[in-house]
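Quick question, first post here. What does this chain look like in 3D?
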Amino acid sequence: MRFLQPSYRSTMEYVIVGCGRTGAALAHLLLAEGAGVTVLDQNPAAFTALGDGFAGRLEIGTGIDEDVLRRAGADAADGLAAVTSDDNRNLMCALIARRRFGVPRVAARINDPARGELYDDLDVQTICPTLTSAKQIRDALGVGRSEPRALRAEIGAAFSGRSVGELAEPGRVVIAAVTRGARAFVPTLEDLLEAGDRVVAFVAPEAIDTFARRLHGAPEMETRR
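> Answer (accepted):
Ran it through. Tokens below.
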């Protein structure tokens, strides 16, 4: 009697959509960890960023085409990173990976901080180089204090009609984004808030209680990690 050995993969498999500087660097980092990597880009010339002797797979095509993603191995991937220069394209690619192929770990790069709120609501993990760089530069200038917490809160009727400036506090509370219906935007201090608006705020730890009181009984806030 013969026993069949179960088949399994010895390495994790990842798909990277977009072969700019970020995509190329990520590909080499994953390969260094022993992972299998497929890099997808619609421009064949972009693959030169990987250098000579790249040990991963290359696929030409767009990351918003299901057939192309399937050819790149998204249907069996352990993770997918959408890191093109286009926020909308990254979102569409990430949604296809999550909803059509069930990829367990999906990350999308965004350059516009205001879009992060929408992406989170769609169950897509986002990385925003704009905010990350700004924080690093702030710290390099010696301004950084205790790391602010990212909070989400929904504006209640009690705060409706009041300005963003009344909720913000210089150096302690920054309102980074407001989502109103399907529209997300970076507010000015003069913008008026409406009931049902969802705000993303970066709040110094020592100011969290004050921020909550300023909302005058708004619904419970959620801390984002």
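DSSP finds seven helices and eleven strands in the chain.
The chain has a mean pLDDT of 84.
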